[in-house]
Each structure stands twice: as C-alpha cells, then as structure tokens.
Amino acid sequence: MALTIGVPRETEPGETRVALVPDVADRLLATVDDLDIRVEEGAGQGAYHTDADYDAAGCLVVGRDATFDADIIAKVAPPSDDEVDRLGEGQVLVGFLSPLERPETAQALADRGVTALAMELVPRISRAQKLDALSAMSSIGGYRAAIGAAERLPAFFPLLTTAAGTVRPARVLVLGAGVAGLQAIATAKRLGAKVFGYDIREPTREEVESLGASFVELEVDIEADQDESGYAEQVEKEKQERQPELLQPHLAEADVVISTALIPGQPAPLLINEEAVAAMDPGSVIVDLAAPNGGNCALTETGEEIVAHNVQILGPTNLPAEMPVHASELYAKTVAAMIEEGLEADAFAPDFDDEIFAESCLTRDGTVQNDRVRGLLGTAEEAKA
Fold it and tell me: What is the CATH number of domain 140-317?
C-alpha cells in the first residue's frame, strides 16, 4: 500500500507559503518507491505554484477531504481547530506547531492519536541542519526586516555623493545576533548603511564584526569584591537588568533599529523603552521581530505599524510569508528532509530513540511528549482549578 503525503492549502490569515513545492515533491516521488503526494487545489497559489505545476511534478491535485486522508500531513502554520478535527489515529503531522505558544493544540492532537512532529523543536545539531526550518525562516525574516526598514526610512541607506552635496549613510542598529539578526546586519550592510550590532552574548562579537558591523558593548560598573566567576555572573545579571538604560544613547543615534531578541515560549525582553523611542530622530524606523512575543520595544503593537514620537514602529508577525517563493522552497526542503529521515523500507517509521525524532516529537501514542509543553498544560489546568 502506497505511503501518502497530504499538502493542504494554508488557511491562517496572511499565510502564503506552502509546505511542499513542485520541485521538492518531484524529488520525493523519484526517491521514494510507492509514494503518492496529494495536494489540495490552490495550495500553492500564494507561493506562485499552480495546480498544473503540481500535476506535472506527479502529484495528485485533490479536494480538501482527500488531502487530509493521508498518512502524513505536511503543513506550514499550526493546525486550526477544523484541521485538528480532520486528523485521526495513526496520522502524522509535520509542520510549525507553536507548541509553547499553543499547548492546547498539542493536547488536542494527542487526544486524537496524532503523531505530531514540530519543526521548531528540531535539535540544533550538525546532523539535523538540513531539517532546520526555524533558521531558514529566521534568515528570511532578518533579510525582509532590513529591506522593509530601508523602504520606510525617509532617507537613503548608503553614502551618496551628488552635485548638491554628500548624504551620510543611515545608521542601523541590530539588537540580537542570532540567525535573523546576522542576516539583518548583512543585508543592511549590503544596502550601504553604517551598521552596528548588539547582543548580550559577548562571543557573538566575532560574528557581528565579520559582517562588517561594529559591535556595541555596554559598560557596566560593578564593585570588584568577588572572585572572577562571581564577578562575571554579576556583570551579566546587571547588564541584563540595565539593558534598556544602557542601550538608550546608542538607540538615539540610530536611524533604524531592528530588534530580534526572542526567547521561545517567553515574553520578549524589553530593550527599547519609551524614553529611547522619544530620543530618536523624527522619521526613524523600528522593526521589532520579537512582536509575536510582545516585542522588544515597549510601544510595539503586534501585527501593526504605528507612529509614536514621530518614530515608525513595525511589529510584523510573519515576514517569511512576504517572500513566499523562496520561503516555501526552503521550508519544503526541510519538511522533505524530515520525512526522508524517518523512512524505513519506503514506510514512515521514525526511530523515536534517535535524537532528531525524540526532540522534535510533540505528540505520540495519545500523549504530549515534550516536557515543557506538558508543564504549560499542567499550569493551565491548575489555573482552571
């Protein structure tokens, strides 16, 4: 009996990506014997892939019911309540599942006997790099943030010499030197801005400087009356607590600030207070990539673009969806890698003792597998009681 993969049309507002693109589907069909890929009508439309493209790749273009009647369901966004209700015992769901933000969805999937593999839980190990969808999407987000900031800034990014005089380059400050932050730094640098990068983790200095940016170091004065280890810990604690205050003069000098400091499942750390926003020049731009978790800026409104103290503050929640062609292509490759990793004799039978599946597995055998999600569910039950 053929292994079947279903690719539904995404229904979450603003989601334009698709979980498998025709080229990746074609490669999977060539690699795996006795495989059927069912793609819902119109699933690739937002990413500029037609039903005819999928048909030419060897996929079956079907209705929604037939799409969900598959062994493996490949999605981008977490499933809606309706989509959860369509899933059942023994099916496998692969996608971004927002387990720490939506633990109740994990419980619903477990109750229906679904094996759910969360792409954001894939471990950060070298063997799993090809499955790292989170990094791929973060890279797109960082790029898009820099492009969006350049579009909205009422001034040039690069140094420009004209007959009327010379225009100085824009000053761009990127907060957070993870994947998104580093991509934002690289993109702003390519656009000709003078770029500065900050991260509380000192080892990131080398990565920031390797991209041609200047590393912002926050000086903290602490009484040196303890051993070296204790001193370092105290400096770190003091720096964390005083970040908004210490960053304020650097923020005031920036034309653009791109903030990317985000901790999954936790409120985003406050880095930009209202006083810092008020100190920025009129027309300056803040792009807050931490908006889904409340934002690094005190004035950020999730999913909105506002103006406060004559500063433009953007709180995007899904920048990769603004680049659906490449976002879908990269995401599809990670999903295909996840499926291929779990194949055994052309059947999907992952080894849940393997680190990749042990960590990415959100639900299995009727239970929530992830400890942090179980803890969140327990906290929710206690609150109800």
Answer: 3.40.50.720
